[in-house]
Structure formats: C-alpha cells, structure tokens
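Dear colleagues,

For the upcoming journal club I promised to circulate an example of a predicted protein-ligand complex. I picked one with S-adenosylmethionine because it came up in last month's discussion. The inputs are reproduced below in full, followed by the predicted structure.
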Amino acid sequence: MKSKGLNAVLALALITPLLAQAENYTFNFGAMDRLPYMAPKLVTPEKRALGKTPTDVWWQTIVPTNSREKTGYPTQKPLAILERIIKVHTNPGDTVLDPFAGSGTTGEAAAKHRRGFVLIDESEEAIRVMERRLGITSAVATAPLNAAS
Ligand SMILES: C[S@@+](CC[C@H](N)C(=O)[O-])C[C@H]1O[C@@H](n2cnc3c(N)ncnc32)[C@H](O)[C@@H]1O
C-alpha cells in the first residue's frame, strides 16, 4: 500500500505541471475556501474579514474516529479536502472521475456541490462502503484483465 501511495504522489507531481500549462482548465478562484491569517493585525480589516487563500501545504485533521463522516474504510480522506479541490477545479454539472475512489469521498463531495461522479476501485470492500455511503448501486466488473477472451 505504501508504494502505491508513493506512486500516486509521483503521478500527481508529474501531471500537475502539465495541467497548469493546459489551455482548457477550471480555476474558480472565488470558490476557494479562505483561512484565518497567521498575523491578522498585519493586514487590512477587509483582508482579515475575507481570510487568506490556502498555500502549497494544506493542514487538515484526519477524519475523527467518532465522527459521522467516518466510514471505517482504512484510507478514507477528509471530505473538506475533496470539497476544496472540486469547488475550485470543476463547475456545477461537470463529472468528476476518481479511479482510486476508496470510501467514495470524491463522490460525496461531487454530489454535495452538484457535480456528477464516476468512481472506480479494485477493492470489493471499497465498493460496498461507497454503495452504503452514497446510496447507490454500482456497476461492478469482476473479470480479471488477463482473462482469456
Ligand atoms: C488512498 S485509497 C483512496 C481513498 C479515498 N480517497 C477515500 O477518501 O476513501 C486508494 C484506493 O485505490 C484503490 N486501488 C489501488 N490500486 C488500484 C487499481 N489498480 N485499480 C483500482 N483501484 C485501485 C485501493 O483499493 C484504495 O481503495
């Protein structure tokens, strides 16, 4: 699992600069959630009221053990992170694809902000968790990729 996680980080690091150069991308600056300034007395009251945009390093607590958000899926990510990404980088009515969907956090964030979603995961446990969490029935392909045709 560790090496898969590392691969995902590497893939993101490789893809991100390419996406930044693409002509057709979505960046809804105004939809970004704002954070309190570390030194609020050093900025104008207007800036203080608005808050600052997130920087490259995002601070977010893990999903608390006893929260309603918790699904029990071992690698579940906090909903707030996916909401931030989806609000800024997609528009209402868009469809979001998550091919490593786990507990379906991407789907919940997408639905909450009126986006569609396509969720994929190789784990049957993940599929069960997503069905329960999102109230959907999945289309499941179970044939191995190297099955004889
Ligand atoms: C870090 S977890 C995703 C967690 C998710 N963001 C959430 O909030 O629950 C990565 C997921 O990728 C799935 N996965 C790994 N390799 C895969 C593959 N080749 N095809 C489909 N799913 C895969 C794992 O089963 C795991 O659920």
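Two points we might discuss: The helical segments are 2-21, 45-50, 79-89, 105-112, 124-134. The chain has one domain: 25-134.

See you all on Thursday,
B. R.
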